[in-house]
Specification:
Elements (H helix, E strand, L loop, with lengths): L14 H21 L5 H26 L13 H23 L4 E2 L3 H8 L6 H9 L1 H26 L4 H22 L9 H26 L3 H17 L4 E2 L14 H16 L19
Antiparallel strand pairs: 1-2
Helix pairs in contact: 1-2, 1-7, 2-6, 3-9, 3-10, 4-5, 6-7, 6-8, 6-9, 7-8, 8-9, 8-10
């Protein structure tokens, strides 16, 4: 069996895939805007549907062109890449919050972590809350994240890897995923609650570039989509729930931390830059997986 992540990518048309994603995303975002209540159950379902449009578009395109759903990286791959995905993501999100707190821009609060643990029947302690948010909450976040990752890293990255190296793959996936997120940022409330929209878009775009490099590196090095799913779910859990719930912000904190803060892109650039420099991806450098993990690739 050919274990190259780009194997069979000649039967992965890119333009029809992107057209399906664009049409579905715009339609669903317009419905989301029309609802008007971004926190209601209908809005939550629409957000989940938007996150699954890349996967469904990839499935439809792949089935039409190759009559198979193989080649998405279904196998787990070497376990070390799951650890790298989790650890690097934790650092990218946590370090900006720690820098902001150390600089006096935000104070630590342990009110919400114990409540989060208590909601799951665990001891209402900060440690139990931290462990729940770092594990169970990540698993739930992965349910939505897998929809995006099956499209971007399961389908698109291997298709691009046929002709391009990591820098070009990063640039293309960055442009595509930025455009994919823009409707929700402009028309819904996926942006900073305090900073201006232009600042949210600028910081998000700057953060997204090294993250796209990281995700492509994970996919191509491991041959699996699951490290990418874990990294995406962990990022959403850490950036949207774990760390914001542990900090009482001051006026400057939202400008520094999270998905729309200025520190996060800098930390992401340093962390991912070091990783891909120390362990660059070269065609054929993919780690050899176990037989069990390659039963369905």
């Amino acid at each position: 069996m050919n274990m190259n992540p780009a194997a069979g990518s000649g039967q992965r048309p890119i333009v029809p895939f992107l057209a399906l994603v664009a049409a579905a995303t715009v339609l669903l975002t317009l419905l989301l805007i029309r609802i008007g209540d971004p926190r209601g159950p209908a809005a939550m379902l629409l957000m989940l549907a938007i996150m699954w449009t890349p996967a469904l578009a990839a499935f439809a395109t792949r089935l039409r062109s190759a009559r198979t759903l193989r080649g998405f990286g279904w196998g787990l791959g070497p376990a070390c890449y799951l650890g790298i995905a989790y650890g690097v993501t934790f650092a990218i999100v946590a370090i900006p919050f720690l820098i902001a707190i150390a600089g006096g821009h935000g104070t630590v609060t342990m009110i919400w972590w114990p409540k989060a643990a208590g909601n799951w029947g665990l001891p209402a302690t900060p440690l139990a809350g931290f462990l729940m948010l770092a594990s169970v909450n990540v698993l739930f976040a992965m349910i939505a994240a897998v929809g995006e990752e099956l499209g971007w890293r399961g389908y698109l990255v291997p298709a691009l890897a046929v002709r391009h190296r990591l820098p070009a793959i990063t640039a293309i996936t960055w442009a595509v995923t930025l455009l994919y997120h823009l409707p929700a940022m402009i028309g819904a409330d996926y942006r900073s609650a305090t900073a201006p929209l232009w600042f949210s878009i600028a910081c998000f775009a700057a953060m997204l570039l090294p993250l796209c490099a990281f995700m492509a590196w994970l996919r191509l090095r491991s041959g699996s989509v699951w490290p990418c799913v874990l990294a995406h779910g962990a990022h959403n859990s850490f950036a949207q729930e774990m760390w914001p719930s542990a900090v009482v912000p001051d006026a400057l904190t939202p400008w520094l931390v999270g998905e729309f803060g200025a520190l996060t892109p800098l930390v992401a650039l340093l962390a991912v830059g070091a990783l891909v420099t120390l362990a660059p991806f070269q065609p054929g450098s993919r780690a050899k997986p176990s037989r069990a993990s390659t039963a369905l690739t």
